[in-house]
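COMPLEX REQUEST
Ligand: zinc ion
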Amino acid sequence: MTHQVRAVVARGKGAPVSLETIIVPDPGPGEALVKIEACGVCHTDLHYREGGINDDFPFLLGHEAAGVVESVGEGVTDVAPGDFVILNWRAVCGQCRACQRGRPWYCFSTHNAKQKMTLLDGTELAPALGIGAFAEKTLVAAGQCTKVDRAASAAAAGLLGCGVMAGIGAAINTGNVGRGDSVAVIGCGGVGAAAITGASLAGAAKVIAVDIDDRKLDNARKLGATHTVNSKEADAVEAIRELTGGHGADVVIEAVGRPETYKQAFYARDLAGTVVLVGVPTPEMKLELPLLDVFGRGGALKSSWYGDCLPSRDFPMLIDLYLQGRLDLDAFVTETIALDEVEKAFERMHHGDVLRSVVVL
Ligand code: APR
Ligand code: ZN
Ligand code: ZN
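STATUS: Structure written out below.
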């Protein structure tokens, strides 16, 4: 059997997305069909539309989602029809080098559904990050579904599927922020704001938010920043050092993805401190640093893939904290929109007006 559902498709480079009817197959072995309830609009979706990821048009956009499992294919035991799940784009394989070494959050061989979703004329769709959730239903690998408490709102829960998890994870997993640490976060959009929340959740004593947009800094304060720096008006490195007794922060999280902000992060950290790069650079970007400074300042320079999260470990835990009132996921939902408003949401994202627009179905 197949299902015909409405979905947001990007047909060509730079062209506005369109709402189309697509065909979704019933789940095969190891797959799950998920009825989507909410899906956040992420930069990566826009990136796909602009041809910045690859040229495999048409794309089925959307990858930051929560919904209910409608049916599962042969051999699926981890999730069952009726389960409320958050979708993840790194379904761990259990067999690759990273998994074998007991570090599944780095899995080098994550997987997606094998069967293809198509347009009505049979053209195969490429789902964004192997998900494609700006759709009434989508087909994923069962390992991409993580069951969480149904009491959570779908709009808030879905955000853990990408940007918010990347930010929180950059702080708690990659940065290993601990009680009493000083943390600076450069770039306070959806990802950076989540890093601030994560640092605060982990017990950081000082959380310094840096951005060039005062709206983002106001918001950062609400999410747990103890200090803010507008780096258009002040030198970010100087300001962070001043706020940390002249030394720099224990952990600096770069959530912009640019060489100049990475350099700020590099020099704004204390000796033997940690830099976490969670912002995603573009292919032409280059970084130049005196090698002596890399040596002399010591510590760790790390990248954070998807917040180095392990969905099965982190999603249910963070949803529990949300339901206990200890993690304000609702604060990241700037607006909820309909499926046909994704293009408008891209516009607002481009202007920096939102942390997240979330499509609610
Ligand atoms: N210095 C400080 N902040 C900056 C600078 C700069 N030079 N340039 C931009 N910013 C701020 C913006 O004002 C904005 O608040 O960085 C923030 C970026 O936020 P968003 O555009 O909302 O992006 P977000 O979803 O948070 O993602 C940030 O992480 O996952 C990656 O691909 C994503 O590279 C992107 C980054
Ligand atoms: Zn994303
Ligand atoms: Zn693996």
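REMARKS: The first strand starts at residue 2 and ends at 10. The domain at 175-305 is CATH 3.40.50.720 (Rossmann fold).
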